[in-house]
Records
---
Amino acid sequence: MTLTRRGFLAGAASGLVPAYCQTCAPPAGGTPLPFSIPAGQTNVQRKAISALTATEVNRLRLAYRALRNLTNSNANDPRGWMQQANVHCFQCGGNPAGSDIHQSWFFLPWHRAYLYYHERILGRLINDMSFRLPFWDWDLPASRNLPPIYRPQTVSSQPNSLFDNLRDTNGGQAMPASIFPANSNPMNSPNFPTFGGSASSGGSLENTIHGLVHVWTAHRPMTQARADMGRLNTAARDPIFFKHHCNIDRLWAEWLRRNPVARQNPTALAWLDRAFTFFDENSRLRSIRVRDVLNTATNLGYNYAPGAALTSSAAPKRFDLTASQQQVVKLTAELKKRLLTPSDLNVTRSLVVEDAKVPTATGLYNVFAGAPPAAGTEASEAPNYLGYIAVIVGEHAHAARPASLILDPKKAFADMASTSEGAFLTYAPAGAAQGTRLSFSSVYIIEQ
Ligand code: C2O
């Protein structure tokens, strides 16, 4: 079936599900068997791509070679490369019944379960159930480019199974330097809704670094929603997708580990009992609940070594700011003084914006206190730059849900917010002179 790009966009804009979606529906699988811990499953630590031995790299290449071969030999095998990619497509708006797990609290657990079955399928294809997915450790500055083993088109004159031609980063270019700033780091999120989302909004991890790595991998600068990684419906066709999400999964574990008292997963049954279906390594349809994926070492056979390159673990102190009907943020004189006094070197101060109405088109948007800087100024160098929003959508209709953001309350923010006019927040794509005012439900500062 051929549809023009214009056709997709028009379908998405009018809220209709384009016919394209039908092509990513999974094969019939009958009644799913509930998840149970597979016999013989043992706990194996997942490693960083940069730490893999030559033997492990070879095993990874063989596994993705086998995955691609399966699509070529039987396009309907639910374990093949394209069927695996379609699982993601279907779940990101391709499902006509409308079940988009993005931009909500199901984002983290759904992707965890998806990676688990994907990992077992790869293990089965190479006859090694101790195979574990590696993670792309872009939290470390040294890993902020496409991992070298994913870049060459061929290896020993054979096609590289980890290669994807639809990337603008196969040359090893570096990610933008402003990608993981200390104060606007999503790892500073004080609670699960701001970190991983709620029933009705997305978390800061999803809407910053997660989206940025997607869109950037496919296209630089991030002004074009390009396949594969730059669109949700095609993202999982790129083998790097699973390693990107493996790191997202690791950061969830790490965020909890850093402060298990202040930071907790949701306890609502609507979250814990929500079930998803996946085909397992034997092509059996399985049903797995959110509660089944919370203890990875016991249930899913993997864990991560502690210690992502991140910030402090202290319990956050919260200072509420007032925001008027017009979404103008105001500081008390006392809070201004606090913000203008340099904090202890070990203290991180972040500005938390809950339920912000984020843009709905794929791209990188910079956030400012007041208007964006004049054209020609590097956004992240403007004194009123607070952080960024990275949005990734696909070609399907999506629920436009709000998102939480973790920003950096800089001096310019403190100055503006303490005047009688207060400060409004704006966002704008790179280089745009006009900003859009950001609306939200609440705003506060945390110190930790
Ligand atoms: Cu389901 Cu990174 O998107």
Note: The radius of gyration is 22 Å.
---
Amino acid sequence: MNILILGSGGREHALAWAVQQNPKCDRLIVAPGNAGIAQIAECADLDILDGAAVADWACEESIDFVIVGPEAPLAEGVADTLRTAGIAVFGPSRQAARLEASKSFTKEICAAVNAPTAAYGRFDDLASARAYLAAQPIPIVIKADGLAAGKGVTVAETRAQAEAALADIFDGAHGRAEVVIEAFLTGEEASFFCLVDGETVLPLGTAQDHKRVGEGDTGPNTGGMGAYSPAPVMTPQVEARALDEIVRPTMSEMVRRGTPFQGVLFVGLMIDAGAPSLVEYNVRFGDPECQCLMMRLGGQVLDLLLACAEGQLDRAQVHWAEDHALCVVMAAAGYPGSYAKGGAICGLDALPSDSRNMVFHAGTARRDGQTVAAGGRVLGVTARGDTLSEARDRAYAMVDGVDWPDGFCRRDIGWRAL
Ligand code: AMP
Ligand code: GLY
């Protein structure tokens, strides 16, 4: 098969790494890719938000299967355009991608099937948002309603913070001025990944990430500073409740509305005393959760994604090893605020690169024969082990071999579970 993966981050490097281990994969192209991906696949310079351009290119290159990594092309309807052109694609339609693109849409779907999630109000003007806020207890959660790269959410500990977040949103900081104000949920968070081909839901795996930039889970939210899989809090009982109370009813509601979901559903949960509530849906793999999942799943991923795209999940099976994976994100100093690009990253060639140790590239480029930083999150240093602490020790041993003066990472990834 000729396979095209859309995206350029650590998630796509991990997907490419797993897919190319499957003997079905003859030719692998990633668009646009990055310097790490270029070591294991061809990279093509395509505008991945332009569905027609991607479909034309895929036809010319005889692409058999397209895997869409990030949410933005999905929200633009790129998967719809590819399917219309007769190309098999892994990823939901534009309508189904609203489960991530619109927080209020997901709330409405949850309400329709009584799925547990935080109570909320949705507003498109500052005055009504402020009036609602005044009557709510603190802490409270303020969310810009739209795609915001993980940065549109404020967990406000004081009324002043909540007011400031509202003011920001209605000043246009996140594009569209619409807000969801949500009750604050307590408990432990976990990410649950399910493949869905309309009606059939196949649990794929669990992970936990660290969204805050600072050690001890403090400071501003980021796209994710590290992750590990599996998530100990996702016991078989919690998983069964999440499937029965949240995932299956909402996926059936999507089918009933004529907009079935096909792809990977990233179920963000808050678990309190064994009871899961939905924090959010995403319609793609998490980044860096994907790096951990791919390292544990390996080449079978291609068979699973194909079964999903072909509506054959009822016949698919996930084979898990009893192991653990942990990913440490190395980011550019200043991230998630402004940061410098272009600093040289040395030492990578001396690091192991095998089925238990991989440095996935997130934001890198090649310049004058060197690997340089080209983004906020730059590397996803990932390792597998028989225990979580073994995976952690391996990952940090690799981190210590990276010579990148402009970079930083959290030293406590996995602390909750360890
Ligand atoms: P989201 O983009 O909706 O996942 O929100 C980003 C992060 O904010 C989540 O991973 C949680 O850590 C936190 N968060 C979001 N909603 C809530 C909530 N209702 N209660 C507590 N924390 C929340
Ligand atoms: N790591 C969180 C996300 O991908 O949204």
Note: The mean pLDDT is 95.
---
Amino acid sequence: MKKNGVYDMALEQLDATAKRIKLNPDIHRVLRHCEKELTVACPVVMNDGCIEVFEGYRVQHSSARGPCKGGIRFHQSVSVDEIKALAMWMTWKCAVVNIPFGGAKGGVQVDVTKLEKEEIRRLTRRFTVNIMPIIGPHHDIPAPDVNTNAETMGWIMDTVSMYQGATVLDIVTGKSTDLGGSAGRREATGRGVMLSTLELLKRWHIDPEKISIAVQGFGNVGSVSADLLHKEGCRIVGVSDVSGAYYNPNGLPIRRMLEHCQTTKHRTLDGFDAPGVSKIKNEELLELDVDVLVPAALEKQITNQNAEKIQAKAIVEGANGPTTPEAERILVKKGKVIVPDILANAGGVVVSYFEWVQSIQSFFWDIEAVNKNLKKVIVKSFADVWELSLRERLTMRDAATQIAVQRVAMAMEERGIFP
Ligand code: GLU
């Protein structure tokens, strides 16, 4: 294991919870391990005829509460250490919102900006075949994550279907609605971020129209979060992506920014300009004087290097693992509230659960039903975490992890260890 890797960070959170709740040491020992880790090499014939080999992983952390569930990301920084951490967080995420899934994650180490679409398609199909021995509608169900989307899920679904000789809708979630996807799935993670933010504001008795927000990341999670929070009346003053950070203290034109992304090669904000908008450094975005900061990019963005400089009163984690434990200690000491990833960004997997149910039944819900049920789950889960955090004087992360670990431990105790 890489020292100071992301998996160490996930273990540190688990160990602290285990100690606090006096978790059965046998259960704790099992949960510190991932059930299954598969590393695969994916050779791809590139458009110039050369063969490139990309390494990929699928990790299942726990199936105690149901089939494993989690996304697949394509990114140059992917490592098995990172995928293991993300798989463990998926276990907690599914448990904290009480959906009947365990946790998994997958990824391929690849810089998608250097590949043509056809090459990405061949890579996706080869990766799918390589992980097919361990995925399945009742074993492990992939979904989109960083740099993957409904189109990628369609390719995965088709690849598995070709092998089965029949269309297998329930093998992935996050498909397009033309291919049995759920209404509202694409927006679900951002919608969950918006709903969690509103729940927090309600408890603080603050009107959404009175708050300013900065969002790091303008991919699927960041852009939808910014858009929906903007529609709720919040002032989005800062937004960033790989092309830079954009700032307007009076509020950014989010709609126009979304439209701009449709015109650029990698769907970034590159070249965006509008009256009153200035470019700032990406690091500066995190340190803006705002009420709420939504980190919606990658892990380890708020560290002991910048935590002291964070001015936001609340951090709502759209990304998985954006705050390191050292940074969290600094932020908590300063009185900041962190709505943790396993709660704040759970909207995606909640609607994935709805999609899986719809795919199995071949009976599809309308958008109103999806959004209503999503809201019910997020509002209830937020309340559970908030109340426990007040009752036991815990951070929201500790409270959420505690609820999740207890639910997983309960399932393990009841099932017993095989044989
Ligand atoms: N990749 C998303 C996450 O990190 C969604 C996972 C899923 O829907 O299975 O929560």
Note: The two ends are 29 Å apart (CA to CA).
